[in-house]
Specification:
Radius of gyration: 29 Å
Strand order of the largest sheet: 1-2-3
Shape: elongated
Order of helices and strands: HHHHHHHHEEHEHEEHE
Number of strands: 6
Number of helices: 11
Largest sheet: 3 strands, mixed
Structural class: alpha/beta
Strand content: 5-15%
Helix content: 55-70%
Length: 391
Protein backbone atom coordinates (compact mmCIF):
# COMPACT_ATOMS: atom_id res chain seq x y z
CA UNK A 1 0.00 0.00 0.00
CA UNK A 2 2.72 2.49 0.96
CA UNK A 3 4.62 1.97 -2.30
CA UNK A 4 1.43 2.60 -4.24
CA UNK A 5 0.70 5.78 -2.30
CA UNK A 6 4.27 6.96 -2.88
CA UNK A 7 3.92 6.51 -6.63
CA UNK A 8 0.55 8.26 -6.64
CA UNK A 9 1.33 11.25 -4.42
CA UNK A 10 5.10 11.80 -4.62
CA UNK A 11 6.42 13.38 -7.79
CA UNK A 12 9.83 12.02 -8.82
CA UNK A 13 9.56 9.55 -5.90
CA UNK A 14 12.86 7.83 -6.73
CA UNK A 15 14.92 11.00 -6.23
CA UNK A 16 15.26 10.70 -2.44
CA UNK A 17 18.20 13.13 -2.33
CA UNK A 18 15.76 15.92 -3.23
CA UNK A 19 14.59 17.63 0.01
CA UNK A 20 11.05 18.11 -1.33
CA UNK A 21 10.79 14.40 -2.21
CA UNK A 22 12.09 13.52 1.24
CA UNK A 23 9.45 15.76 2.81
CA UNK A 24 6.72 14.13 0.72
CA UNK A 25 7.75 10.69 1.94
CA UNK A 26 7.48 11.89 5.53
CA UNK A 27 4.04 13.39 4.91
CA UNK A 28 2.69 10.24 3.21
CA UNK A 29 4.08 8.03 5.98
CA UNK A 30 2.68 10.31 8.67
CA UNK A 31 -0.75 10.50 7.04
CA UNK A 32 -0.94 6.72 6.73
CA UNK A 33 0.13 6.38 10.35
CA UNK A 34 -2.59 8.79 11.49
CA UNK A 35 -5.24 6.82 9.60
CA UNK A 36 -4.17 3.42 10.92
CA UNK A 37 -3.73 4.58 14.51
CA UNK A 38 -7.06 6.40 14.73
CA UNK A 39 -8.88 3.33 13.38
CA UNK A 40 -7.07 1.06 15.87
CA UNK A 41 -7.73 3.52 18.73
CA UNK A 42 -11.47 3.57 18.02
CA UNK A 43 -11.76 -0.21 17.71
CA UNK A 44 -9.69 -0.96 20.83
CA UNK A 45 -11.46 1.69 22.89
CA UNK A 46 -14.84 0.14 22.08
CA UNK A 47 -13.51 -3.37 22.72
CA UNK A 48 -11.85 -2.29 25.98
CA UNK A 49 -14.94 -0.53 27.34
CA UNK A 50 -17.28 -3.44 26.59
CA UNK A 51 -14.83 -6.03 27.97
CA UNK A 52 -13.85 -3.87 31.00
CA UNK A 53 -10.17 -4.49 30.13
CA UNK A 54 -7.70 -1.87 31.36
CA UNK A 55 -4.93 -3.39 29.25
CA UNK A 56 -6.99 -3.10 26.03
CA UNK A 57 -8.00 0.48 26.87
CA UNK A 58 -4.35 1.30 27.64
CA UNK A 59 -3.35 -0.21 24.32
CA UNK A 60 -6.01 1.94 22.63
CA UNK A 61 -4.59 5.16 24.08
CA UNK A 62 -1.13 4.00 23.06
CA UNK A 63 -2.43 4.04 19.47
CA UNK A 64 -3.84 7.51 20.05
CA UNK A 65 -0.40 8.73 21.13
CA UNK A 66 1.01 7.14 17.97
CA UNK A 67 -1.48 9.14 15.89
CA UNK A 68 -0.28 12.31 17.63
CA UNK A 69 3.31 11.23 16.95
CA UNK A 70 2.48 10.87 13.25
CA UNK A 71 1.17 14.44 13.25
CA UNK A 72 4.45 15.58 14.83
CA UNK A 73 6.33 13.60 12.16
CA UNK A 74 4.53 15.46 9.37
CA UNK A 75 5.20 18.82 11.03
CA UNK A 76 8.86 17.90 11.50
CA UNK A 77 9.37 16.96 7.87
CA UNK A 78 7.59 20.12 6.72
CA UNK A 79 9.67 22.40 8.94
CA UNK A 80 12.95 20.66 8.12
CA UNK A 81 12.37 21.22 4.38
CA UNK A 82 12.32 25.01 4.75
CA UNK A 83 15.08 26.70 2.80
CA UNK A 84 17.96 28.48 4.57
CA UNK A 85 17.22 32.05 5.61
CA UNK A 86 19.01 34.98 7.21
CA UNK A 87 18.54 33.64 10.74
CA UNK A 88 19.28 30.00 9.81
CA UNK A 89 21.91 29.95 7.04
CA UNK A 90 22.43 26.20 7.46
CA UNK A 91 18.76 25.43 6.89
CA UNK A 92 16.19 23.81 9.17
CA UNK A 93 17.16 20.16 8.75
CA UNK A 94 17.59 19.55 12.48
CA UNK A 95 13.88 20.12 12.94
CA UNK A 96 13.52 16.50 11.85
CA UNK A 97 15.69 15.44 14.79
CA UNK A 98 13.61 17.62 17.12
CA UNK A 99 10.46 15.99 15.75
CA UNK A 100 11.97 12.57 16.46
CA UNK A 101 12.73 13.71 20.01
CA UNK A 102 9.13 14.87 20.49
CA UNK A 103 7.89 11.50 19.24
CA UNK A 104 10.08 9.81 21.82
CA UNK A 105 8.84 12.08 24.62
CA UNK A 106 5.24 11.34 23.65
CA UNK A 107 6.03 7.63 23.95
CA UNK A 108 7.47 8.20 27.44
CA UNK A 109 4.49 10.26 28.62
CA UNK A 110 2.04 7.66 27.41
CA UNK A 111 4.11 4.93 29.05
CA UNK A 112 3.92 6.68 32.43
CA UNK A 113 0.16 7.11 32.13
CA UNK A 114 -0.32 3.47 31.20
CA UNK A 115 1.88 2.36 34.10
CA UNK A 116 -0.15 4.40 36.57
CA UNK A 117 -3.53 3.13 35.33
CA UNK A 118 -2.35 -0.48 35.09
CA UNK A 119 -0.87 -0.45 38.59
CA UNK A 120 -4.17 0.92 39.88
CA UNK A 121 -6.08 -1.92 38.18
CA UNK A 122 -3.90 -4.48 39.98
CA UNK A 123 -5.05 -3.20 43.37
CA UNK A 124 -8.63 -2.55 42.19
CA UNK A 125 -9.30 -5.26 39.60
CA UNK A 126 -12.52 -5.50 37.60
CA UNK A 127 -14.14 -8.58 36.14
CA UNK A 128 -13.04 -9.07 32.54
CA UNK A 129 -15.64 -9.95 29.92
CA UNK A 130 -13.51 -10.66 26.84
CA UNK A 131 -15.36 -11.27 23.57
CA UNK A 132 -14.42 -12.69 20.19
CA UNK A 133 -14.63 -9.12 18.87
CA UNK A 134 -11.90 -8.02 21.29
CA UNK A 135 -9.62 -10.87 20.23
CA UNK A 136 -10.19 -10.14 16.52
CA UNK A 137 -9.42 -6.44 17.09
CA UNK A 138 -6.16 -7.27 18.88
CA UNK A 139 -5.09 -9.73 16.17
CA UNK A 140 -5.86 -7.14 13.49
CA UNK A 141 -3.88 -4.53 15.44
CA UNK A 142 -0.79 -6.75 15.53
CA UNK A 143 -1.01 -7.33 11.77
CA UNK A 144 -1.44 -3.60 11.01
CA UNK A 145 1.37 -2.57 13.37
CA UNK A 146 3.74 -5.12 11.92
CA UNK A 147 3.01 -3.74 8.45
CA UNK A 148 3.70 -0.21 9.76
CA UNK A 149 6.98 -1.41 11.26
CA UNK A 150 7.91 -2.97 7.92
CA UNK A 151 7.34 0.09 5.73
CA UNK A 152 8.69 2.60 8.27
CA UNK A 153 11.89 0.55 8.70
CA UNK A 154 12.43 0.46 4.94
CA UNK A 155 11.75 4.18 4.74
CA UNK A 156 14.14 4.93 7.63
CA UNK A 157 16.98 3.15 5.82
CA UNK A 158 16.07 4.74 2.51
CA UNK A 159 15.99 8.28 3.88
CA UNK A 160 18.48 7.83 6.76
CA UNK A 161 15.75 9.30 8.96
CA UNK A 162 15.85 9.22 12.75
CA UNK A 163 12.17 10.13 12.87
CA UNK A 164 11.18 7.17 10.71
CA UNK A 165 13.43 4.87 12.72
CA UNK A 166 11.79 5.98 15.99
CA UNK A 167 8.33 5.49 14.46
CA UNK A 168 9.25 2.03 13.19
CA UNK A 169 10.58 1.00 16.60
CA UNK A 170 7.40 2.22 18.24
CA UNK A 171 5.32 0.12 15.82
CA UNK A 172 7.37 -2.96 16.72
CA UNK A 173 6.92 -2.22 20.42
CA UNK A 174 3.17 -2.02 19.78
CA UNK A 175 3.20 -5.46 18.15
CA UNK A 176 4.80 -6.97 21.22
CA UNK A 177 2.70 -5.08 23.77
CA UNK A 178 -0.55 -5.88 21.95
CA UNK A 179 0.59 -9.51 21.75
CA UNK A 180 0.90 -9.57 25.56
CA UNK A 181 -2.56 -8.06 25.93
CA UNK A 182 -3.95 -10.61 23.46
CA UNK A 183 -2.38 -13.54 25.34
CA UNK A 184 -3.82 -12.37 28.66
CA UNK A 185 -7.25 -11.77 27.09
CA UNK A 186 -7.35 -15.30 25.65
CA UNK A 187 -6.19 -16.87 28.94
CA UNK A 188 -8.84 -14.99 30.95
CA UNK A 189 -11.53 -15.91 28.43
CA UNK A 190 -10.62 -19.61 28.58
CA UNK A 191 -10.09 -19.65 32.36
CA UNK A 192 -12.44 -17.03 33.90
CA UNK A 193 -11.96 -18.60 37.34
CA UNK A 194 -8.42 -17.14 37.58
CA UNK A 195 -8.35 -14.56 40.40
CA UNK A 196 -4.89 -13.14 39.69
CA UNK A 197 -5.18 -9.59 38.21
CA UNK A 198 -3.53 -10.63 34.94
CA UNK A 199 -5.15 -7.77 33.04
CA UNK A 200 -3.47 -5.16 35.25
CA UNK A 201 -0.19 -7.06 35.19
CA UNK A 202 -0.29 -7.13 31.40
CA UNK A 203 -0.91 -3.40 31.41
CA UNK A 204 2.16 -2.85 33.60
CA UNK A 205 4.31 -4.99 31.29
CA UNK A 206 3.05 -3.07 28.27
CA UNK A 207 3.74 0.26 30.00
CA UNK A 208 7.29 -0.77 30.96
CA UNK A 209 7.95 -1.97 27.43
CA UNK A 210 6.74 1.36 26.04
CA UNK A 211 8.88 3.30 28.53
CA UNK A 212 11.98 1.35 27.55
CA UNK A 213 11.32 1.97 23.85
CA UNK A 214 10.81 5.67 24.54
CA UNK A 215 14.06 5.84 26.51
CA UNK A 216 16.01 4.20 23.69
CA UNK A 217 14.42 6.54 21.14
CA UNK A 218 15.31 9.60 23.21
CA UNK A 219 18.95 8.49 23.36
CA UNK A 220 19.12 7.94 19.60
CA UNK A 221 17.46 11.26 18.71
CA UNK A 222 19.41 13.44 21.15
CA UNK A 223 22.78 12.26 19.82
CA UNK A 224 22.60 13.96 16.38
CA UNK A 225 21.39 17.16 18.05
CA UNK A 226 24.42 17.18 20.34
CA UNK A 227 26.78 16.12 17.54
CA UNK A 228 28.18 12.64 17.01
CA UNK A 229 31.02 11.06 15.11
CA UNK A 230 30.31 10.58 11.40
CA UNK A 231 29.61 7.09 10.12
CA UNK A 232 32.96 5.24 9.66
CA UNK A 233 31.84 4.03 6.23
CA UNK A 234 31.20 7.66 5.18
CA UNK A 235 34.63 8.70 6.46
CA UNK A 236 36.25 5.83 4.55
CA UNK A 237 34.48 6.80 1.32
CA UNK A 238 35.53 10.45 1.67
CA UNK A 239 39.16 9.46 2.28
CA UNK A 240 39.10 7.12 -0.71
CA UNK A 241 37.81 9.86 -3.02
CA UNK A 242 40.32 12.46 -1.82
CA UNK A 243 43.30 10.10 -2.03
CA UNK A 244 42.34 9.09 -5.58
CA UNK A 245 43.43 12.53 -6.78
CA UNK A 246 47.09 13.14 -7.48
CA UNK A 247 49.25 14.67 -6.09
CA UNK A 248 47.35 14.50 -2.77
CA UNK A 249 49.51 12.46 -0.39
CA UNK A 250 47.54 12.53 2.85
CA UNK A 251 44.36 13.59 4.63
CA UNK A 252 43.61 14.63 8.20
CA UNK A 253 41.38 16.86 10.36
CA UNK A 254 38.22 15.56 8.70
CA UNK A 255 35.22 17.15 10.42
CA UNK A 256 31.56 16.53 9.56
CA UNK A 257 28.82 18.87 10.78
CA UNK A 258 25.32 17.43 10.49
CA UNK A 259 22.60 20.06 10.08
CA UNK A 260 19.97 17.48 9.24
CA UNK A 261 19.58 14.70 6.65
CA UNK A 262 21.04 15.82 3.33
CA UNK A 263 22.64 18.89 4.92
CA UNK A 264 26.22 17.97 5.72
CA UNK A 265 29.14 20.39 6.08
CA UNK A 266 32.48 18.65 5.53
CA UNK A 267 35.90 20.17 6.13
CA UNK A 268 39.26 18.45 5.84
CA UNK A 269 42.96 19.05 5.33
CA UNK A 270 44.62 17.56 2.25
CA UNK A 271 48.39 17.14 2.26
CA UNK A 272 50.05 18.20 -1.00
CA UNK A 273 53.70 18.51 -2.12
CA UNK A 274 55.03 21.87 -1.03
CA UNK A 275 57.19 22.25 -4.11
CA UNK A 276 54.28 21.87 -6.59
CA UNK A 277 52.68 24.76 -8.46
CA UNK A 278 50.12 26.45 -6.19
CA UNK A 279 47.68 27.17 -9.05
CA UNK A 280 47.69 23.56 -10.21
CA UNK A 281 47.17 22.35 -6.65
CA UNK A 282 44.29 24.76 -6.15
CA UNK A 283 42.60 23.45 -9.30
CA UNK A 284 42.90 19.86 -8.04
CA UNK A 285 41.44 20.82 -4.65
CA UNK A 286 38.52 22.57 -6.37
CA UNK A 287 37.80 19.41 -8.39
CA UNK A 288 37.84 17.28 -5.22
CA UNK A 289 35.41 19.63 -3.49
CA UNK A 290 32.97 19.46 -6.41
CA UNK A 291 33.34 15.66 -6.63
CA UNK A 292 32.62 15.16 -2.92
CA UNK A 293 29.69 17.58 -3.04
CA UNK A 294 28.11 15.72 -5.95
CA UNK A 295 28.68 12.28 -4.43
CA UNK A 296 27.45 12.98 -0.91
CA UNK A 297 25.22 16.02 -1.27
CA UNK A 298 27.45 17.94 1.14
CA UNK A 299 29.02 21.37 1.34
CA UNK A 300 32.77 20.63 1.26
CA UNK A 301 35.73 22.85 2.14
CA UNK A 302 39.30 21.58 1.81
CA UNK A 303 42.37 23.21 3.29
CA UNK A 304 45.72 22.55 1.60
CA UNK A 305 48.60 21.52 3.83
CA UNK A 306 52.00 21.64 2.03
CA UNK A 307 54.44 18.90 3.00
CA UNK A 308 58.13 18.63 2.27
CA UNK A 309 58.39 15.56 0.08
CA UNK A 310 62.08 16.16 -0.71
CA UNK A 311 63.27 15.77 2.88
CA UNK A 312 63.97 12.02 3.23
CA UNK A 313 64.32 12.33 7.00
CA UNK A 314 60.63 13.25 7.47
CA UNK A 315 59.05 9.88 6.53
CA UNK A 316 61.68 8.03 8.61
CA UNK A 317 61.03 10.23 11.64
CA UNK A 318 57.27 10.00 11.15
CA UNK A 319 57.45 6.20 11.10
CA UNK A 320 59.59 6.22 14.26
CA UNK A 321 57.11 8.44 16.14
CA UNK A 322 54.13 6.35 14.98
CA UNK A 323 55.77 3.15 16.22
CA UNK A 324 56.53 4.71 19.61
CA UNK A 325 52.92 5.88 19.93
CA UNK A 326 51.71 2.30 19.51
CA UNK A 327 53.23 1.54 22.91
CA UNK A 328 50.86 4.13 24.42
CA UNK A 329 47.66 2.95 22.77
CA UNK A 330 45.78 2.42 19.51
CA UNK A 331 44.40 5.19 17.37
CA UNK A 332 47.00 7.88 18.12
CA UNK A 333 48.13 9.48 14.85
CA UNK A 334 50.32 12.37 13.77
CA UNK A 335 50.22 14.72 10.82
CA UNK A 336 51.67 17.98 9.47
CA UNK A 337 55.19 16.95 10.44
CA UNK A 338 57.81 19.44 9.32
CA UNK A 339 61.39 20.25 10.30
CA UNK A 340 62.76 23.76 10.82
CA UNK A 341 66.56 23.72 11.24
CA UNK A 342 68.37 26.27 13.42
CA UNK A 343 71.91 26.96 14.58
CA UNK A 344 71.76 24.95 17.82
CA UNK A 345 68.79 22.61 17.19
CA UNK A 346 66.10 21.57 14.74
CA UNK A 347 62.45 22.08 15.60
CA UNK A 348 60.30 19.06 14.75
CA UNK A 349 56.78 20.47 14.49
CA UNK A 350 53.70 18.29 14.19
CA UNK A 351 50.13 17.65 15.39
CA UNK A 352 49.07 14.53 17.27
CA UNK A 353 45.47 13.28 17.41
CA UNK A 354 44.70 12.04 20.92
CA UNK A 355 41.75 9.59 21.25
CA UNK A 356 39.34 10.19 24.12
CA UNK A 357 40.31 6.88 25.75
CA UNK A 358 44.04 7.62 25.64
CA UNK A 359 45.77 6.65 28.89
CA UNK A 360 47.93 9.80 28.84
CA UNK A 361 46.73 13.35 29.38
CA UNK A 362 47.60 16.04 26.81
CA UNK A 363 50.59 17.22 28.87
CA UNK A 364 51.78 13.65 29.47
CA UNK A 365 51.49 12.86 25.77
CA UNK A 366 53.51 15.94 24.85
CA UNK A 367 56.20 15.05 27.41
CA UNK A 368 56.34 11.48 26.10
CA UNK A 369 56.84 12.65 22.52
CA UNK A 370 59.49 15.20 23.47
CA UNK A 371 61.44 12.52 25.30
CA UNK A 372 61.20 10.02 22.45
CA UNK A 373 62.27 12.54 19.83
CA UNK A 374 65.20 13.60 22.01
CA UNK A 375 66.20 9.93 22.26
CA UNK A 376 66.04 9.73 18.45
CA UNK A 377 68.25 12.78 18.00
CA UNK A 378 69.47 15.05 20.82
CA UNK A 379 69.52 18.07 18.48
CA UNK A 380 65.79 17.67 17.72
CA UNK A 381 63.26 19.70 19.72
CA UNK A 382 59.63 18.60 19.52
CA UNK A 383 56.93 21.24 19.11
CA UNK A 384 53.69 19.30 19.57
CA UNK A 385 50.08 20.40 19.17
CA UNK A 386 47.44 17.97 20.48
CA UNK A 387 44.34 17.73 18.29
CA UNK A 388 40.86 16.52 19.27
CA UNK A 389 39.53 13.33 17.70
CA UNK A 390 36.54 14.06 15.41
CA UNK A 391 36.21 10.83 13.38
Amino acid sequence: MFSLLARLFIKDYKNISNPSVRTSYGVVSGALGIFFNFVLFALKLVAGIFSCSISVIADAFNNLSDAAASIVTIIGFKLSSKKPDKEHPFGHGRMEYIAALLVSILILLMGFELLKESANSIFHPKALDASVFTIVVLLSSIAVKFYMFFYNSRLAKKLSSGTMKATAQDSLNDCISTGIVLAVTIVLKLFPQIKIPLDGCAGVIVALFILWGGYESVKETISPLLGVKPDPDFVSQVEKVVMSYKPVCGIHDLIVHDYGPGRLMVTLHAEVPGEADIFELHEVIDRIEVDLSNRFGANVTIHMDPVDTNNKEIPVLKAYISNELKTVGEGITIHDLRMVPGQSHTNVIFDVVRPYDCSLSEDELKAFLRAKICEYNKTYNAVVCVDQEFV
